[in-house]
Amino acid sequence: MSRLLHVSASPRGARSESLALAGSFLQTYRELHPWHTVDTYDLWDGTLPDFGPAAAAAKTAVFSGAAPSGAEGEAWARAVATFERFDSYDRHLFSVPMWNAGIPYVLKQFIDVVSQPGLAFGFDPVTGYTGLLTGKKAALVLTSGVYGPGRPTSFGADFQAPYLRDWLQWAGVADVGEVHFRPTLATADPDAARTLAHAAARQLATTF
User: Which of 88, 95, 146, 172 is the most buried (most CB within 10 A)?
Assistant: First the structure.
């Protein structure tokens, strides 16, 4: 039985466009797969561990084949627990608003916490990285309020979608679907674009 984890990166609750789109996706997914487990990880709920000096030192120690101890060991244990929670699901839905051309810092923190050697990736000094999260599927629900494809550069750039695609590919997730809602402040009819985006989210859920 498949397990789906919705990783929510928006702090805006009912006002969030990305969360609303994720809701349409999840409603369809649940209707089609009522026996599947579906959970949500709200990255703003205070449970995400930090990734500071102790955690960085622990990662370096593991990279070199050592076992972190003390404060570093505790930081490593928190990172491993967060990864194991993430890895226990074979399907992941990410709802992500664009912040300053990129992703919210809490999602970057999550990525830094779970992207650990021997867990999310392997490394060989000759061949480089190998993603270890193979066999999983991911869906990206991506929104922005100013940037939009085809708009002048004065409306911003997109470091949101390319970053997430690259991270997932690097980690070994090859099956990635995307839904975009990018009406921008200059869109004449955002409601029409919103309707299309929700339809796309529901459609993506049917193949997920």
Answer: 95
